[in-house]
Amino acid sequence: MATRNFIHGFHAIVARLRSQPGSVEEVFVDKSRRDARMRDLVRLAETAGVRVMQVEAQRLDGMAAGARHQGVVAAAAPVALTASLDDLLDALAEPPLLLVLDGITDPHNLGACLRVADGAGAHAVVAPKDRAAGLSAAAIKVASGAADSVPYITVTNLARTLDELKERNIWVVGTTEDAVEDVYEASLPEAVAWVLGAEGEGMRRLTRERCDSLVRIPMRGACASLNVSVAAGLVLYESRRRRPRP
User: Does pTM top 0.85 for this prediction?
Assistant: First the structure.
């Protein structure tokens, strides 16, 4: 019997029911909850033709593998937002804005990065298949719906992928604390792929060598660095700010 795929949390499940209701097999809710938020979710599921099951909280704990599920878990098929990075780039009608994550293994950081990427209008989040967080239930929950709107594309060889982006005239910009220019001073084209590494370790050597330029985020206080999702939000919104308003 195939292993079922579960997502949990109100934001993640509501977003999936609205964007891809056909991918949701069943919704399981805590039978002890009768509040308005739960009633709205049940109504949304039933309107979409999805069966709702009232179960004990302990059963939800097992489905969510002990994560904080907020009293709601859904069995849902994985949703592929794009077949490949090439397909996505070929279909864009504006200069690409990409977020590349190198060595980000915490699913909560990945979920937060997806949420930031969605807010800034990034076209995709790219990561290597190894040394990277997968699109787990925890990441989907933290993403608060962004996992269903921003493609998360994993690649076999990140260095080669960055070379291919450069061939498409996409400027590859890495962030590192020892860069000379800061993000506000740097000259940035519209087509850009921002590369962020893990806190502490930073980008891997081969990844750093593929960057067209390196910039730093100026730190005014005692902390040496920002959480990767905060840094991602800063650089993506800076790119978006510089673009002509539609």
Answer: no
